[in-house]
Amino acid sequence: MKKQVIQKIGLCALIALCAFLIAYTQILYSFDSIFSDRLYQSGLSPNSKIKIIAIDERTIAAYGDVATWSRDIPATLVQSLNQDGTHAPAVIGFDIMFVTQKDAEADERFAQACAQAGNVVSAINLVYRDQISVEGGVAVAQKDQVVMVEYPYPALKQSAAYGFANTYQDRDGYIRHAKISEQYKDEEISSFAALIYQKYMAAIGQEAVTPELQNGFFSFSYTGKGGSFEVISMCDVLDGKIDARVFEDAIVLVGAYAPGMQDAYASPIDRGARMYGVEIHANVINALLNQKTGVPVIMPIYAAATALLAVVFWLLAERMRILPATLTAVGFVVLDLLVSKLLYLGGWQVRIIEPILAIVLLYAMKLIAGYISETLKKRRILNAFRKYVAPEVVQEIAKGGNYQISLGGERRHIAVLFVDIRGFTPMSEGLQPEQVVEILNEYLSLTTNAIFKNRGTLDKFIGDATMAVFNAPFDQDDYVYRAVCTALDIAAGSAELEQKLNQKFGKSVSFGIGVHCGDAVVGNIGCEHRMDYTAIGDTVNTAARLESNAGRGQILISDAVKEALGDRIDVSRIGTIPLKGKSQDVCVYQLNGLTQE
Prior knowledge:
The chain is built from 18 helices and 23 strands. The chain is an alpha/beta fold. Strands 16, 17, 18, 19, 20, 21, 22 and 23 form an eight-stranded mixed beta sheet that branches. Strands 1, 2, 3, 4, 5, 10 and 11 form a seven-stranded mixed beta sheet that branches. A four-stranded mixed beta sheet has the order 6-9-14-15. Strand 7 (181-184) and strand 8 form a beta hairpin. Helix 10 (299-317) runs antiparallel to helix 11 (322-345) and helix 11 (322-345) packs antiparallel against helix 12 (353-386). The two termini are 57 Å apart.
């Protein structure tokens, strides 16, 4: 018991370690992301106050390549949106870089328009690099450090707010996380989307809520596929085709909306498709407005929870049959999905696939272990049967799979045959041991072949005696008849064997046989370390007593055998004789042969 407990603890520890490493190393990151995106990126309702003014192909066709634009164009846009102060947008965000100076007058006109409006946010770019710093004389590598900021040109920097529009791709190339701010020297710079959100909340008189962060990042839920927000062509706005009141108190985002502008990224809500950068900013803003943000769960805690889940499942399913184990596995998978979704709604982004993978692998391990155990068990039992029953019976057992035995025994009606060499002890005194063994092997081969020929079970050898049972361990048809046929086959073969041994050793060998039928207990008798398949009971004792009373070459059967076979056998009545160990006399018959085949 102590050894089994230690083995179980060791196995549970191994399962926990493997599950922990699978979860902690995130070896299935890309595969997990597919399922996580389907569970988490279910889509939010787009805020009607978020509107996109698209620099689309129509706009490019009308005004040319953006890189060639005069700053008069964005200045005109800002002025047209803010021409009526009552119906002006809450925030105008340009997802366009205005870094270099071009035409001085146009640059100044755009800066003045932004200063007068007071609601413009311009995009800037942060330049990241890995840096080596020396701390206490030790070189320390610092990843993704801001080494440069591409600010707007000076006049615009003074007249408009600015925020970095960098996007951050996950390991699989998709964008699921964003930042609120970034530190550069002594300046804390807000992100483009976060700054617009903060300005909008201030404009409507509400307080902005800062989401929970992990390593400076937060995850966000997408609104939907590309085109979920209201998109208006910039050329329509500049041409005066759109009433400015459409943008009243709105968040207006101006950005690239044409394939050639190379500002599109992979979004997890529409895998395989690209989403324009301005739409990604719109999704971040919408998530902040709806407070649909979160942070990844702490990895060591997630890995430990995965390990615990795996161990609990194994302990529950280990001793279950296939159907309950299958239902348990399905239940654990559903539980993982449900808990993950609930945690996500509470602001935590939990990976999904690793716990499911652990459950599936353990379930498969249970199936494989069960199959191997069942195969080995079947092989052990079949190997044991080969010692007792005919090969044909073993083949039928293997084919049908009916190989279960009731340990400890079961009550069955059986036929029992005993056969013994007459005069074996005096005969062995005049022979060498090797010769005795040879004679005994000849005899045992004869009896065994006769038993197996009639599909009986060889119970045991008892010195120079052989015991066989019929109708055990499996049901047989006409098993009493098979027992008497075995006795006649042994008697027939003994004549040839007697002649052979007489010629070789000068010794005569004959047999005495007894057959009886009745109830007995059959099964594995013994202890855990040593057991034999045998039959026990008065039926066995009676058959043994009949054999001991049989003369040379004589077959004695009981009245029970005579009644069972009737006129199918030719018998001679011996009469009622006392049998050693039995209180009542038994009517005994001598078996002469069969009356019909």
